[in-house]
Amino acid sequence: MQTASFYKDLNFSDESVVITPMLESSFGKEIRIAFKKGQVMKAHKTRFPITVMTLKGNIHFGVGEKVVILNEGDVIALEGNVVHELKALEESVVRLSLHKGDSVDRVKGVLKL
After folding, report:
1. Which of 53, 59, 52 has its CA nearest to residue 35?
2. HEC string for the chain
3. Residue 87, Cβ neighbours under 10 Å: how many?
4. pTM of whole model > 0.90?
5. What CATH class does 18-106 carry?
6. What are the backbone angles phi and psi of residue 54, rounded to the nearest 5°?
7. How do residues 34-44 score in pLDDT, each as one tens digit?
8. Spacing of C-alpha 91 from chain mean position
9. Which residues pair with 33 in a beta bridge?
10. Residue 1: CB partners within 8 Å, gap ≥ 6?
């Protein structure tokens, strides 16, 4: 059994989004992403399906020409190879659920785009 808190030891940075691995199981990985207002994860994709949930704040979630505002408690699922981007409309915390075959390093690499 593993446990984690997405709110404990929560840190934000003026320089960039903060990506923190929270749990890894035999079937997936849970990642916390902390955004200050206005911070962005530029357009990117992964070959695996993902699920994104807003735990705090509001996220502008773009998929191609379509935009969804993810408010606290909202969740979205994407299949693999779907280009998407995120922008925090206010200080926000996101839970990213990754496929076991995906990597935290790939997620962190999005910040370098």
Report:
1. 59
2. CCCCCCCCCCCCCCCCCEEEEEEECCCEEEEEEEECCCCEEEEECCCCCEEEEEEECCEEEEECCEEEEECCCCEEEECCCCCEEEEECCCEEEEEEEECCCCHHHHHHHHHC
3. 18
4. yes
5. mainly beta
6. -85, 120
7. 999 999 999 99
8. 13
9. 19, 94
10. none
